[in-house]
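Researcher: Quick test of sequence recovery. Tokens follow.
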């Protein structure tokens, strides 16, 4: 899924209820952070190469990841609010790779504009490190002919460089590719596939407005496997209209049976302006209640973990060694490029998005070429915002918040304040705590450490949300940190 910044800080635009509230962009003056300001400023001015993992510096490093938005779909799904271009089911872009595929002017003109944007983008450093991950999101990128995908990859390689072993992911929908197209994409360097299954029930797929059916799902899985794709993911959506626990368990069971190396599980969010918004009210039948949605999440966590998948991020599960490297860029708050309609970038500590309307995006690219825009220009870093970003993104992951690094970056007093506000949730089991060696710290020990800032900084290593109960309270728990950092 492509990135957008409809709230701050940025998150992936996935259909999930796990969205944090907006927070202010005030300059740091609060007493909780003030004691560490001088250290923060000094650290931020040091050579990043000396300590590239520092929380104060990692977002300043040159991007090694790029998100590419290919907005084409056969039609708009009923839950989708992404910027897309609906081609229609009769479009020349089909499952096969034919000469006519490149003749659709809508696709050709867009890809040419996309490549112009890449070429006109200023490098964030000299020399610029080569890209380590590329993610083609949409839309339905598998509708784009391989010849044009090749053009995009060639442009990326020429402009930014591309590692020989780069992770190159592509979102692909059942019914939009055959074996010939799949093999051609693999030859171009695509080595990770994200298959948009969403559900294994015909009635649910139709209710969502999906362009594929169950038959196409099984055909797509067979193509992926027969072409030798080792690293592939399945996307599923819970809390759909009329979805029952039995249906959800069946989808999870079938997903496990086809043995993907990665599974992404998203909870439906009824977005403004979508068809679902006109049809349904969140929490009311035929949509599930909040309690029912929570149960869906618990079922997924239990079934997937029992099947050997590591729950490494709120919505993401994987077999050992198959985490999505590109998405880890976001969770680690590292910088990244974004290209294409509505996409967002995070470069030099600055987050910015492209227009969501095609006409406006075309004007944006022209202005970029004419030197009227400088989106890569650095700006003052609000360290309060940075602290919020680190807490929010870290708590989405199973690894959790690195307390030692956080304290070194933002000061021991702020760290202690955050630990104090989370104390009751460590006691209730919604959060867990460990030292740097992974030893679990009991709630009684955690309470004792709260009375001694020095011991807290020395002993406590990581603070994380428990699975699944803590993850289910992520909005509330992350909001508590917002209140401490940006009251």
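Model:
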């Amino acid at each position: 899924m492509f990135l957008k910044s409809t709230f701050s800080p940025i998150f992936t635009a996935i259909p999930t209820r796990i969205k944090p509230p907006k927070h202010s962009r005030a300059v740091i003056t609060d007493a909780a952070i003030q004691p560490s300001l001088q250290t923060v400023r000094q650290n931020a001015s040091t050579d990043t190469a000396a300590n590239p993992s520092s929380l104060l510096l990692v977002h300043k490093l040159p991007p090694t990841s790029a998100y590419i938005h290919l907005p084409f779909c056969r039609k708009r799904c009923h839950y989708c609010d992404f910027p897309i271009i609906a081609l229609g089911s009769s479009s020349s872009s089909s499952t096969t790779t034919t000469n006519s595929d490149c003749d659709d002017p809508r696709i050709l003109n867009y890809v040419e504009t996309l490549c112009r944007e890449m070429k006109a983008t200023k490098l964030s450093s000299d020399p610029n490190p080569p890209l380590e991950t590329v993610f083609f999101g949409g839309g339905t990128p598998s509708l784009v002919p391989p010849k044009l995908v090749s053009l995009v990859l060639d442009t990326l390689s020429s402009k930014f460089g591309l590692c020989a072993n780069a992770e190159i992911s592509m979102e692909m929908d059942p019914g939009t590719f055959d074996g010939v197209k799949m093999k051609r994409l693999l030859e171009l360097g695509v080595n990770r596939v994200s298959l948009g299954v969403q559900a294994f029930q015909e009635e649910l797929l139709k209710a969502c407005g999906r362009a594929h059916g169950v038959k196409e799902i099984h055909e797509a899985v067979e193509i992926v496997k027969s072409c030798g794709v080792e690293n592939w993911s399945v996307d599923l959506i819970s809390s759909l209209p009329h979805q029952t626990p039995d249906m959800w368990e069946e989808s999870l069971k079938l997903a496990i049976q086809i043995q993907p190396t990665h599974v992404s599980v998203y909870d439906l969010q009824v977005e403004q302006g979508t068809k679902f918004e006109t049809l349904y009210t969140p929490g009311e039948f035929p949509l599930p209640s909040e309690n029912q949605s929570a149960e869906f999440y618990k079922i997924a966590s239990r079934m997937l973990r029992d099947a050997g998948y590591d729950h490494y991020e709120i919505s993401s599960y994987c077999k050992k060694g198959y985490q999505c490297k590109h998405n880890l860029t976001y969770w680690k708050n590292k910088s990244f490029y974004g290209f294409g309609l509505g996409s967002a970038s995070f470069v030099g500590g600055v987050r910015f998005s492209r227009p969501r309307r095609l006409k406006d995006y075309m004007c944006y690219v022209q202005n970029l070429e004419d030197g009227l825009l400088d989106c890569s220009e650095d700006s003052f870093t609000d360290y309060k915002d940075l602290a919020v970003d680190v807490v929010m993104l870290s708590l989405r992951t199973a690894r959790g918040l690195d307390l030692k690094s956080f304290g070194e970056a933002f000061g021991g007093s702020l760290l202690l304040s955050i630990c104090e506000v989370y104390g009751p949730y460590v006691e209730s089991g919604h959060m867990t705590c460990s030292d740097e060696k992974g030893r679990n710290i009991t709630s009684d020990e955690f309470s004792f450490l709260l009375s001694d800032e020095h011991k807290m900084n020395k002993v406590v290593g990581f603070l994380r949300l428990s699975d699944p109960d803590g993850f289910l309270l992520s909005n509330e728990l992350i909001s508590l940190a917002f209140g401490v950092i940006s009251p």
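The first strand starts at residue 3 and ends at 4.
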